[in-house]
Every structure is written in structure tokens, then in C-alpha cells.
Prior knowledge:
alpha/beta; two-stranded antiparallel sheet; 8 helices; globular
Amino acid sequence: MAKAEKILCTIPARAGSKRLPEKNLRLLAGKPMIAYSIETALKSGFFEDVYICTEDEKIAEVAQQYGAKVPFLMSPELCDDLVASHIPCQQMATFLSNKGQSFETLVCLQPTSPLRSVEDLQVGLEHFLAENLDFLVSVTPIDPHYFHWALMPDNQNSWSMYFGNKYLKERPLLTPVFRPNGSIKIARLEKLKEVGHFFGSQMGVVETPEERSIHVATQIEFELCEFLLGRKSS
């Protein structure tokens, strides 16, 4: 199925994390954090190869040890923290296309989501293909009060409700809301080029629970992943 659909699996892994230095290579329960995303992708059965988008030789070397491919190193400009994740992934698609490998669909798996399961990825891809979607992202339920009761500063001394007072209700009366968690992002390459992000029309979602939706950006989040992995193996 994956081969017929020509699905490209990419993992954007830059080296320059400011809050958690070298986080993609940090040992998480005995393995570099990037290894979890590589292994999940390879076990899903949807991809013959998994490609790493990185500017860093060390990341490239470790990723290849876990079965990923790194046909070239990205320019540092494409791996800046202000560059959206789809940009280096599209660059990889262009590179492979110039080498005679064309793809219809792009999958972006961020290495900072090490707890996604093989089943999460399989369910997302199966839904994307079965419904002929243009985009799909993984989402997690959030407390509606966190969303509807958001505050914003008006000035130095005054704050107001971001969405106004109409949502000042108890939880059962509020609409359920979800947050994109960054774990799984899928797009038709042509549509991605058109809109420049993963949230265009004809978008579906795959819901993943909080314990598999952690995005590692801080030391606390890293330690939480270690705790959850330890609990899973015990």
C-alpha cells in the first residue's frame, strides 16, 4: 500500500536546540531520542526508507545506525529554529525527485515526539488514505478551560479574556477542543506546496492520548518521557 501511494517519511532533526541542547541525541531510556521515531516509522510497514533532514554530521551518523537514510546534509539556514518543519522535509522531497524518486505524500515525524506508537502512525496513515485526505495531523484533547478561558495582556497593568466573556461557562457546557501535538503530520505534497503548512482543507486528525503526545522541548518534558518509558517497561 505504502509503495503504491509513494509515501515519503521524513524526520526533521536539527542540532541547534537552545532550551535542551543536543536533545535529539540525548539518551532516553538508553537510546538516542531520535531512534524512537526512526524505529516507529520502520515498524509501521508503510515505508521502505526513512529520511533524516539534518545539518549535523553527528545526528546523521546516529540516525543511520538505527536504519535511517541521510543522502545529504541540509544547509544550516534550513535548520534554524524559525524555519517551519515542513521546509526541510520538502527540500528532501525535491532532492529525491531530482534523483528519480517521486512521491505523492509526505509524512513528517518530529523526533521530539518519541512516545508515539506504531499503531498511532498506522491508524493515521490508514485514515488519510481511506478518506483521500489532503492533510492529517495528530491531536490531543485539552481542558476546554485552557482554551476558552485564555487571557491576554491589554497593556502593562490590564488583562482581558482572549475570546471574550461568552465562554465563561462550566466545562460540561463548553465545546470539546483539541490541540495539534506535532507527533504526526501528513500531507499531499502538491497541496503542501500550495498552502505552506499542514492545516489546509480536506484535513483529518488522529487522536492520541496525552501520555503518547508529549513534545520534548524542556528538561521536565524529557524526564517525563523517561518516567513513562520506565513505567511501560516495568
